[in-house]
């Protein structure tokens, strides 16, 4: 029986990963701040899929909580076969803000926690000669919409670096770069998204299926759906001045 640890598995993309993996027979370790939400998901999935679900209340902006999760990842008695570094949120803040609390939390949760948990999982998996790590980045990594883009570009490049260090070890590493997905992400982060055309949205279950398929195939960067793969590919070919212009327009449309 394999076990997957998912950060932020109570709602949204993380919950969809949890459901998909539970249906495949994975036991789960779910970590987020919402203990009641975690217990409710655990009860539902145990009943629906007959799997074991462990829950860990953790705030990934808190170093102590992240280190406790890292310890769980490296526990030789209870190996984790798949880590999904998913937890995250929108960073709807200016780079000129004097108060950098939101930026700091975003860097803690979406960069430092990913680095610490990815390193712990990689050490344990490399020693066993098998395992997989999936980091949730974003298609925003291909544009320049403030700190969120910078953070998600870091996640994508970090993943490529990690895959280099793990090459030949039997451990697979993938960063998934989704387009827009209907979750709590936008309402929680105060990002205007209701006026976006249907064409930009990706079905969350489709996103999860393709990411898992790409991880299995050893694809290091996964952009779910052909439409978004085309858009991200185009962004990489476009002059940087065009990317900055598009990003300015996008940022303005959300205000
Ligand atoms: N939705 C999109 O359009 C989209 C597109 C591209 C990439 N992404 C990325 O996908 C990932 C998941 O986002 P989502 O769309 O599923 O958003 P969501 O529905 O708002 O879910 C976010 C999850 O992250 C967890 N989380 C947030 N801050 C945390 C913290 N400090 N400690 C522990 N857990 C924390 C939340 O759990 P608790 O609140 O219970 O702690 C929740 O389970 C993020 O990394 C996001 O950047 C989203």
List keywords for this structure.
255 residues, Rossmann fold, two-stranded parallel sheet, 9 helices, globular, binds NADP nicotinamide-adenine-dinucleotide phosphate
Question: Which secondary structure elements does this structure contain, and how are they paired or packed?
Answer:
Blueprint: E1 3-7, H1 12-23, E2 27-32, H2 35-49, E3 53-57, H3 63-73, E4 82-85, H4 101-128, E5 131-136, H5 146-165, E6 171-176, E7 180-181, H6 185-189, E8 201-202, H7 204-217, E9 221-222, H8 226-237, H9 240-253
Parallel strand pairs: 1-2, 1-4, 2-3, 4-5, 5-6, 6-9, 7-8
Bound molecules: NADP nicotinamide-adenine-dinucleotide phosphate.
Task: Walk me through what this model shows.
There is one protein chain. With 255 residues, the chain is an alpha/beta fold. It has one domain (3-253): NAD(P)-binding Rossmann-like Domain (Rossmann fold), CATH 3.40.50.720. Helix content is 51%, strand content 15%. It has helices spanning 12-23, 35-49, 63-73, 101-128, 146-165, 185-189, 204-217, 226-237, 240-253; strands at 3-7, 27-32, 53-57, 82-85, 131-136, 171-176, 180-181, 201-202, 221-222. The strands form 2 sheets. The chain has a 7-stranded parallel β-sheet, sandwiched between helices. Strands 7-8 form a two-stranded parallel ribbon. The termini are far apart. The model has no long low-confidence stretch (mean pLDDT 96). Bound molecules: NADP nicotinamide-adenine-dinucleotide phosphate. NADP nicotinamide-adenine-dinucleotide phosphate (NAP) is lined by residues 7-8, 10-14, 32-34, 37, 58-61, 86-89, 109, 136, 138, 178, 180-181, 183-185, 188.
């Amino acid at each position: 029986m394999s076990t997957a640890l998912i950060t932020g598995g109570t709602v949204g993309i993380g919950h969809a990963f949890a459901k998909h993996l539970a249906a495949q027979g994975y036991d789960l370790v779910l970590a987020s701040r919402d203990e009641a939400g975690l217990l409710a998901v655990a009860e539902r999935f145990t009943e629906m899929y007959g799997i074991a679900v462990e829950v860990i209340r953790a705030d990934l902006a808190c170093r102590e909580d992240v280190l406790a999760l890292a310890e769980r990842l490296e526990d030789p008695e209870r190996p984790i076969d798949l880590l999904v570094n998913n937890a995250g949120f929108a960073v709807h803040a200016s780079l000129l803000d004097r108060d950098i609390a939101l930026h700091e939390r975003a860097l803690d949760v979406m960069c430092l926690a990913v680095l610490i948990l990815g390193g712990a999982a990689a050490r344990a998996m490399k020693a066993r000669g098998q395992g997989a790590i999936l980091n949730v980045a974003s298609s925003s990594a291909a544009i320049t919409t403030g700190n969120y883009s910078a953070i998600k570009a870091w996640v994508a490049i970090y993943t490529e670096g990690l895959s280099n260090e793990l090459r030949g070890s039997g451990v697979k590493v993938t960063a998934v770069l989704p387009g827009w997905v209907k979750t709590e992400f936008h309402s929680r982060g105060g990002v205007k998204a209701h006026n976006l055309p249907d064409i930009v949205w990706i079905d969350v279950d489709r996103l999860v299926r393709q990411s898992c398929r790409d991880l299995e195939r050893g694809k290091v960067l996964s952009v779910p759906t052909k439409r978004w793969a085309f858009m991200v590919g185009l962004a990489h070919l476009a002059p940087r001045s065009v990317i900055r212009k598009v990003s300015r327009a996008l940022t303005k449309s959300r205000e």
